[in-house]
Structures are given as C-alpha cells and as structure tokens.
Amino acid sequence: MQVEVVMPKMGESIQEGKILRWMKKPGDTIEKDESILEISTDKVDSEIPSPSAGILTKVVVPEGETVDVGTVIAFIETDPKSAKVDTSAPSASGHKKEPEQEPVAEAPAQRQTEGASSRQRNGDRFYSPLVKTIAQKEGIALEELDQISGSGMGGRVTKNDILGYLTSRSSKPAVALRTDYTIHSADLKELQKKYPAPKYEILQMDNLQKKMAEHMVKSVQTSPHVQAISECDVTRIVDFRAKHAERFEKMEGFKLTYTPFFINAAIRALKQFPLVNSSLEGDKIIIKKFINFGMAVAAPSGLIVPVIKNAEEKNFLGLARSINDIAVRTRNKKLMPEEVQGGTFTITNYGVFGNIIGIPIINQPQVAILGVGAIQKRPVVMTDAEGNDAIAIRSMVYLTLSFDHRILDGAIGGQFISTVVSNLEQYDFSKAF
How would residue 102 be classed by pLDDT, with cut points 50, 70 and 90? Predict the structure, then answer.
C-alpha cells in the first residue's frame, strides 16, 4: 500500500515549512517513526518521523523548498514487493495536496487537516490561512489579492509579498508602517565582488538564524527596553549543589545544574508580581494566570527558547526534569514547534560562557526577561547581627532584568529582581529533593 508523506501541521500558527534535508533517499528501507527528513518552520527546526514502515519510493519536494501544511512531499510503499522506486530529481514546483483528496493512509500529520482544508481558492490561485488573515485584517478583497505578484512556489503569494504590497500602497510614513522585519536575500555575486576571496568569506544565514534576527529587531522596535541589575549571593546554593550533586545524578540520571534554582526563584517572584507575567495588546494589558517559562538554549543551529508549560505547577524535581528534557531535545532537534510557543517569561543564562553581565532582549510578546551571569567567588563585605563588618569569600552572580517600560516602571522592575535575589539567598532546600 502506498502512503503519502505530507508536510505536517506542527502547531496552530504553523502554516508552512521548509525542507532542510532529506535524511533518506528513494529506495531506502524505513522503519515506522524513523527520522526521514528535517524541516524548518518559523519557530524551530525539527526532524520528522516516518508515518509508516516500508520503502521510500519517491521524493516529491526537494531540499530548500517551502510548502504549505498538507502538501504531499514523498511516498512510502509498505509492501516491498510492490515498490516502484522513482530516483528522478524532484520538481522544484513540488506537489500540492488538494483538500478534496482522500489520503491513502492515515498519518499523524494527516489527521490534522485544518491547514489543507482552510486554504481558500479564488480562480486558479491558492492562499494560505496566514495570507488570508492578513488580507481580511487589512481590508484587501479577493479581487485585489489576485493582483499581487507572488514570489512563492508556483507564484504563491507569501506573507512577505502581501506585507510588501501593503507598504507600497499606503501613503502613511514608513516608520508607522513597519510590520515586516524580514531579512531579505542579498545578491551573492554582488557580495563576492565586494568582498572577494580569500580575504573574505561569505556565509549564508540559515532559516533559524534569520527568524531569530527578525524577532530580535522586532522586539527592539516594539518595546522601550529598561534594565535593572542586581548582585546575588548564591553561596548556599553552590554549597548545596556540591554536596548533593553525586546523589542527585545517581537518582535522576542527569546532572544537577543551577538552572532549576534560578527558575524556581523567578516563578515565586512572578506569583508575587503578576504584571511581569503579562503582555500588551493595544492599550490592554493581558495578565496570564499561568506561567509558561521560556529557557534560552544554545542549539547547534542557533539560539532556541523552548517553553516549560504551566511551570508554576511543578516542584523542584519536576522543574529539573523538564529543564533537562527540553535542553536535550533542543540540541537533538526533537522539539515540536508548539514547544517554543506560548511563553510568558524567559530566562537566559549567558553565564555558561563566562560572561558576568549581559543585557538581554525581551522575547516578544513577553514584557520581561531575566539574564543570569557567571557565578564567581569574590571577596564580599559581610555584616553580622551586631553590625560588625568582615570580609568573606562568597559565590556571587549578577542578575539582569530587561523589561518593557510601557507596562513596567522602575519600581516594579526593581522590586521584582530584588525578590528573585531574596528567594535565591534564602532558598528553602527542604523543598528541593
């Protein structure tokens, strides 16, 4: 039986994906759930498992192509005796899976047909849900939409096409129109002339790097950033970790890091200052009654921020397990796009690279981000209960809070980070493990 492999719908907001690499070639035998290709969305790079065991008979969409969710990208034959392998190069135009087609066999991605069925057709053109949403929001009729030139596969109108059209048709000042933060492709031949080898080397940004760059530019354009920096004495935590690290690793199977201590302290502070766990829509502040804690992870392909959902419900061990799980899967490209969405607050630990102080950029649409520097031993003036001063060697760390000054003023920002410091310095180890 022939099984269609389709571009999976990997999240409610994901409407298309780019094929980065085929890990199998036509003629290869494949096990069910074995990784067969790597795709990139605007959220994360992921390895996609095979929906069925069999032989990969045909690759329809080549590497480098971006196609809509629901598009047929390959075929697998489950009966080796019936396999007819097509080794010809896939067409750059790809193959669209029409909404009215019945699937040959049900795959996990095919059970979610919203992406394919919601595509709207006018004449001979298809428009993705994202393009349709932008058109409706901006009052663009289908007749007007048909006049927009498409740069996508087969002349498809992309997000960048419609946003560029909106910019060109409007008479408003460009600064007020800035909604597209896309990094556009540069002419390689022109750059090679300008920066000739061997004195220069030109590298191509990958999809994840471009999306991260666009996200950071958008954040700076959106939020007036203010920073508050505090130092924190984490000597007790350092000593506790050193004492219990070996037992913890034997018990849990992974190393005890400082990260769960910092996240736990921040969660307790967020409960005390719910405004820091909010977002802004127009002139309305949206307070989140849950904490989806984002954690910046340095992956091989770039910085990714997976999210621990409902982190406020987890105890110390639960947090430690979740942190280890998402860190390992991020580095192994096993994250699903929904696991990097919906964050309400983020922590970034640049201290792992030896940096003592950093100024992080807010992860939109959040309103604050906590930065953690390197823990270092330093001489510190200590004052006892009787007011006597003494110099002691303590393990110290600088914490930086970047916050959106549209919502959070200096008082709230300062009080929040001071509370995080207090939670760390007075950490209750009886609730650890």
Answer: very low
Selected catalytic residue, list 33, 146, 239, 409: 409
Domains, the chain, with CATH or none: 2-112 (2.40.50.100), 120-210 (4.10.320.10), 225-431 (3.30.559.10)
* pTM summary value: 0.69
Active site residue 215: no
CA distance 5 to 110: 9
pLDDT band at 111 (very low <50, low <70, confident <90, very high): very low
Q: Which of 33, 79, 239, 405 is catalytic?
A: 405
Query: What is the number of residues in the chain?
Result: 433
Is 405 annotated in the active site? yes
pLDDT the model gives residue 407: 95
Provide the pLDDT confidence category of residue 180 given band limits of 50, 70 and 90: low
Q: Which residues contact 8 (CB under 8 A, 6 or more apart)?
A: 17, 48, 69, 107, 108, 109, 112
